[in-house]
Amino acid sequence: MKTVIVLGAGGFIGNHLVSALHKEGNFVIGADIKKPLYKDSKADVFLTGDLTDKKFLFHVFSQSITKGVDEVYQLAADMGGAQYIFSGLNDADVMSNSAKINLNTAEACLKHKPNRIFFSSSACIYPEHNQLDPDNPNCEESSAYPANPDSEYGWEKIFSERLYLSYHRNHNLNVRIARFHNIFGPYGTWKGGKEKAPAAMCRKVAEAADGGEIEVWGDGSQTRSFLYIDECLKAVLDFTRQDYFTGPVNIGSEEKVSINELAQKVIKISGKNISIKNLHGQEFFDKYNFKCPLGVNGRNSDNRLFKEKMGWEPSFSLDEGLLQTYNWISSQL
Asked: Catalytic annotation on 167?
């Protein structure tokens, strides 16, 4: 039995990861500022507290029932969907809270020396100037520098990548760093402003009447790729436990779609006759009183490095994932 710590265990990916680790037979310690909202945690110990508090985070590490900690998965961050990240209204919290969590985690790992440490970075670290063309974004891992993210969330992730890599070099911590590209699926945030695009689309379509319309922010031409949660978990566990490379490496799908295409896919799944109203520019500002939070024009995972090193690429399609997610969100309504 391994002792495994999941920081951010109350979040969408974190709760799914806890379940996967528990199923393997590990002793799982989960910690977050909140418990999971939509599915009970499978953690053997779940501690609720603020991970920006060093005393609390060190307390989490003390819960091991063995001689040490085998694996640490650091997923905790102050984050959300486009409305939260790109409106500019939450920048100070996004920067300071996430940085404190990672500084505390690095220090705790230095003391307890876990066998492996996984840090979840983000595709938001990639330079804005490489993502201006929605049809040809460049998200190859080596393109991250010169750094020019389009959000403070991206800047904090770059800092934290470098933090863990410096602890790897100077203190021999066995770290793994992956950049997530829009992970989605059931049991995640789907309302309240922190939900991401797939969940937001599923909610809007599920709520809309047949013959009605849904609102899509922006002109709908901006492109993204989305990776289903089960694929993400396999990639994370395989990557963390290999000894070939540290990363950073992309974990995502290469199935790129425009936001309008994403909305159309969800509408098709629903079986409803629904039209799309794109809202942007002054019309958006007049309605919401802040600039339309779009992010970059185009972003798509480049999986060549992961495939080269790990010999694996995702196989679960966007349509299959959206069907699972839409059915779950519809059940919540």
From this structure: no
